[in-house]
Inverse folding.
């Protein structure tokens, strides 16, 4: 899956080329690829199984993806229905929609707030680390793109709660390679760390996780 994703990132210029790359490669697991194309001015999901391939285009100005397929080809297959009914994917999907509707405008800041969200539906407290939460405090990182502006925000530790560092890809590509040790972050667009890091709840949870790791 990682090799297919890398090939798409390296060679595809638009959604159709991404689809063709995914179609010609074999995978041993099922996966969704969220493809956002500045040239096509939209995003789609390429859904791939070891035997089949489909594309899901919601035809609207947002797209939500958790851990189940949404295309016409796959949505009613038994394996996908089992995933919807027996996992937290559907719950997280509803929570993302709830937060999108509440935010009204999907800014970078609002997008990052959604990625950091630990609440359940209707803002219920469902406990830290709950698999129904969008942020289960297990993710290594998250990334936010603005493809048409060639801007990217990358989270820092721990678990999407640290600063989201901003990079201007126009600037980076114009450098023709990084020839010296220098900072290329755009500090003016950095998103601050989540205030949750300063709470007692976080301190307690961090100590518990550290004990478990030891």
């Amino acid at each position: 899956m990682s090799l297919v994703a890398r090939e798409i990132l390296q060679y595809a210029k638009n959604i159709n080329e991404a689809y063709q790359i995914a179609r010609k490669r074999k995978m041993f697991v099922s996966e969704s690829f969220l493809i956002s194309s500045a040239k096509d001015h939209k995003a789609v999901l390429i859904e791939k199984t070891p035997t089949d391939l489909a594309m899901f285009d919601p035809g609207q100005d947002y797209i939500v993806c958790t851990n189940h397929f949404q295309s016409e080809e796959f949505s009613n297959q038994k394996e996908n229905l089992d995933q919807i009914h027996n996992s937290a994917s559907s719950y997280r999907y509803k929570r993302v929609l709830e937060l999108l509707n509440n935010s009204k405008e999907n800014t970078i800041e609002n997008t990052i707030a959604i990625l950091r969200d630990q609440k359940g539906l209707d803002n219920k407290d469902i406990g830290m680390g709950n698999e129904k939460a969008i942020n289960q405090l297990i993710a290594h990182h998250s990334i936010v793109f603005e493809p048409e502006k060639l801007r990217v925000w990358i989270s820092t530790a721990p678990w999407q709660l640290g600063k989201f560092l901003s990079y201007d890809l126009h600037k980076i590509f114009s450098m023709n390679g990084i020839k010296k040790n220098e900072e290329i972050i755009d500090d003016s667009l950095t998103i601050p760390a989540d205030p949750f890091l300063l709470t007692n709840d976080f301190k307690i949870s961090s100590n518990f996780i550290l004990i478990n790791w030891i």
Remarks:
- The helical segments are 2-11, 15-24, 78-86, 89-103, 108-116, 169-174, 200-213.
- The mean pLDDT is 91.
- The chain has two domains: 2-62, 89-213.
- The longest strand covers residues 31-37.
